[in-house]
Structures are given as structure tokens and as C-alpha cells.
Amino acid sequence: MNKKTQQEGINFSIKNATNSIEGKGAFAAENIAARKKIGNLGGEIIALKEARKRAAATKRVAMVEFGNGKALDGSVNPNALRYMNHSCEPNCYMRVRFPLVEFYTLRAIAAGEELSCNYGETHHDGKLPCRCGSSKCKGFI
Q1: d(Cα 35, Cα 94) in Å, to the nearest integer?
Q2: Which CATH class is domain 3-117?
């Protein structure tokens, strides 16, 4: 992935690096103030039926459903936010409004800190073990 693709749609410098949650994560490469829009998740808008087919065929899903029969596949034409992991005690939140999946900070974030959000409802139906490591972890996604 080239640098332009990684940063397209992102307002701050974000780096992808290894982590303890899912193997790879999105990290702030600079300080980001509270209540700031980090950027939009890159990806391809597809039909919900196709999204569910793709999700069933992959181990690491980067799919967001819009509720209008469409979804964003964040693994196609991705940017650095594709690796934002779930946390039960997140420092960011996700706002879904067709055709965008936006990420905002909940609090100030220091350079080097991993970015995370609560995924909310997922296709895992609360059966995927959560590995966020938070003292407030609910155990499953």
C-alpha cells in the first residue's frame, strides 16, 4: 500500500503497526485533540448481499453495513484506518452515515497511542472473544 492510499481521507498522520489486540493496529503519529474528526474509512461501497458473501470468506473482516442494503468493504482500496481495532474502552467513535464511515476522537490522543473504537453490533453476534485488554472488557464482540 502506498503512502497516498494509506492517508487518503484522513486528517491526521496515522501509522499502521503491530499490536497485541489483533496483530496490526492504527496508531496516531501525532497528537490529536479531543472531539476531532480523524477521517473516513477507505473502501468500496457494495451491495449487502455481496458484503456478507465476502465476510463469510475471510478471517479478518473490515465491513461496515449502512442499513440501506449497502456496505463499505474496508479491505478494498483501504486507508490506514482499516486497522482501527475494537476496544470496550475506546478513545474514538465511529459514525456511520451513507456513504461514509467516519472516526472521531473521544478524548485527546497522544502520538504513538493506538486508536480504537467500540464496533457496536457486529456479525459475530457477541460470540467473538474480545482481546482489547481493557479492565472494562465485556469479553466478547
Answers
A1: 12
A2: mainly beta
